[in-house]
Amino acid sequence: MQLMGKTVQVRRALLSVFDKTGMEDFARGLSERGVELVSTGGTQRLIANAGLPVREISDLTGFPEMMDGRVKTLHPKVHGGLLSVRDNPAHQAAMDAYDIGPIDLVAVNLYPFEKTVASGASYDEIIENIDIGGPAMVRSAAKNHAFVTVVVDPADYPAVLDAIRQGGVPYALRQRLAAKAYARTAAYDSAISAWFARELQFDEIGYRSFAGTLREVMRYGENPHQWAAFYTTGEDRPGIATTQQVQGKTLSYNNINDTDAAFELVSEFDPHVTAAVAIIKHANPCGVAIARDLVNAYRNALRTDPVSAFGGIVALNREIDAETATEIVKVFTEVIVAPSATKTAQDIIAAKKNLRLLLTGGVADPKAEGLTVKSVAGGLLVQGRDNRNVDDCDIRVVTQKQPTEQEMADMRLAAKVAKHVKSNAIVYVKDGATVGIGAGQMSRVDSALTGHRKSIDAARASGVEGALTQGSVAASDAFFPFADGLEALVAAGATAVIQPGGSVRDDEVIAAADAAGIAMVMTGMRHFRH
Ligand SMILES: NC(=O)c1ncn([C@@H]2O[C@H](COP(=O)(O)O)[C@@H](O)[C@H]2O)c1NC=O
């Protein structure tokens, strides 16, 4: 392959695109450089209507497009023209024998499989939108990038035209376009296999592929020496991947991770029922509150841990109003994320140039099915999304003391927040707001103590002696293996506790609660989060 690595002149191009964006200009540019154009049905009509000379694919193959377009380019005259090694005498002999002409450039984009699935189309319609001929051409051309240029993204048309105007497409560009082409067909097949898996409810099908579309390359990852990029999967879930950035600096890797945690948390609360605000640091909440309006929810969330809230992410489940925006901008905040914002709220936030404002258009459905993926050395851990919460549980009172209505409401809030706190999680709540959060400790007792200690700091910050946890309720994300965790909650001042139960020592824990005279309920649902 002596020609390999050289700049290649383009003499014949095959154009077959579903998304016709930019195609007329691209075809004109090619035509002006003397490139012969060959094209399929709709693409051919577009080019011909623009007054440009273009051959129909059936003229090249000698076969009509048939079977509702299932077979149009699947022919040796196409694939031979794409795959032949130009300086290989045997390949040349085959081309001569079968009258196969070289094709130097292919521009293809595929039937919109992903969009068809997202639109809720029927099974048959989805199947019909699996492109076969397109990926086949893309793969042939990409394999033979030593000689052939493959363009799968209209965004690359200008660069390719520029190269052709300067005499030909250089090897480095052909190579990059080939890599992109295989990434595209891999992502396409990944979407098809993921759809099949969902449709047939296969939990295990032998292979899994996960794909995304590049949204942005970040300056760095979790730390400055780590490379990072954000890929979106196309899932139609209001949140970090679908958000519109209205203002502020570009998002960092950590911002994206924390904003996701923040918005998923407030999405637990139906905005028609209550306003909810979460302030997040390092993917853990440092304050969460629900209230009749956002401004009170924000003030109460902030009170939990005003020190940690500095440089935090604020998520809201309703449209941000001017009053709430005014409160938020008083504290140094990295990101605000909400379904929408009033014009006045946006103007108030605009005064802080660097502050990012992200609008999602709605809250996420906390009950929606989905997968989460985590990488481990040499593998991927895949599981169903944790799409259930305390509202799905049969709550059992296990102590002599019954919780009051207020305690019960606060325990539901505490349990929903605990679901979003890294394990071991302990969340203290009083009157609709968190008053102490213990996150990510290796022992449940330590989490209970941490939340308590932080509530003493927060009380002091607001000029109150003692702990905010006095008279609160507490939630634990998992059962208490011993009574010591429960006793730490009692010592912190909790009057009611919500936890899944299920320990072999549940009896001891219940006895400790009875001895302390507090109420305890069990949900039967654990919410580990790592
Ligand atoms: N069947 C084939 O041989 C075939 N060849 C190309 N396509 C696709 O047909 C589309 C373009 O069709 P048209 O030019 O008719 O709008 C492209 O998305 C291309 O990927 C095909 N369609 C499906 O497999």
UniProtKB/TrEMBL annotation:
Reactions it catalyzes: IMP + H2O = 5-formamido-1-(5-phospho-D-ribosyl)imidazole-4-carboxamide; (6R)-10-formyltetrahydrofolate + 5-amino-1-(5-phospho-beta-D-ribosyl)imidazole-4-carboxamide = 5-formamido-1-(5-phospho-D-ribosyl)imidazole-4-carboxamide + (6S)-5,6,7,8-tetrahydrofolate
The UniProt record lists the keyword Hydrolase: yes
GO biological process, alphabetically ordered: 'de novo' IMP biosynthetic process
Biochemical pathway: Purine metabolism; IMP biosynthesis via de novo pathway; IMP from 5-formamido-1-(5-phospho-D-ribosyl)imidazole-4-carboxamide: step 1/1; Purine metabolism; IMP biosynthesis via de novo pathway; 5-formamido-1-(5-phospho-D-ribosyl)imidazole-4-carboxamide from 5-amino-1-(5-phospho-D-ribosyl)imidazole-4-carboxamide (10-formyl THF route): step 1/1
SMART domains assigned to the protein according to its UniProt record, in alphabetical order: AICARFT_IMPCHas, MGS
Residues covered by the MGS-like domain: 1-152
Family: Belongs to the PurH family.
Record-given protein name: Bifunctional purine biosynthesis protein PurH
